[in-house]
Specification:
By secondary structure, this protein is α+β, with helices and mostly antiparallel strands. Helix content is 34%, strand content 23%.
Length: 145
């Protein structure tokens, strides 16, 4: 397996994971003024929040997330980037930025920031579709803001 992510039914996870996600949502939507109030509201410690805040998220939660950062490796061939852009557009994501490193051994590494406001599918499906696109070797979620 080359993915760092697992899809796990939240029924088997500790309750505090959901509370970390809820605290992040409260902060993102401005329902609480600061982290102290967010963790107090959901009933977890600040240390629990800080320990997991960058690792626990709902990928389909468009309301709390505005941008996704995805890292990919593409074959350095004409038309591969165009195919990637078509996949992104087909799910109504919009591209904020694309950064590409010079190709090494005919593989280009890119980082792409996507706006998720109008997306018609979750990030899981988008990344699966990217991985199935000819010429895309890897696609991994780096983060969600």
């Amino acid at each position: 397996m080359d993915s760092r992510y697992l899809i796990v039914d939240k029924k088997i996870l500790p309750e505090y994971f959901e509370k970390v996600v809820e605290a992040s949502r409260l902060l993102a939507e401005g329902e609480v003024p600061d982290i102290s109030e967010a963790v107090r509201t959901v009933g977890i410690s600040r240390s629990t929040y800080y320990k997991y805040k960058d690792y626990v998220m709902e990928l389909s939660a468009k309301k709390t997330s505005k941008r996704a950062i995805i890292s990919m490796q593409l074959r350095h061939e004409a038309g591969v980037l165009e195919k990637l852009i078509r996949v992104i557009a087909s799910h109504s994501y919009s591209i904020w930025t694309i950064n590409q490193s010079p190709p090494v051994n005919n593989i280009a590494t890119i980082m792409i920031a996507l706006n998720m406001d109008d997306a018609t599918c979750g990030l899981e499906q988008l990344i699966l579709d990217m991985r199935e696109t000819e010429g895309i070797k890897k696609a991994n979620l780096i983060g969600v803001e």
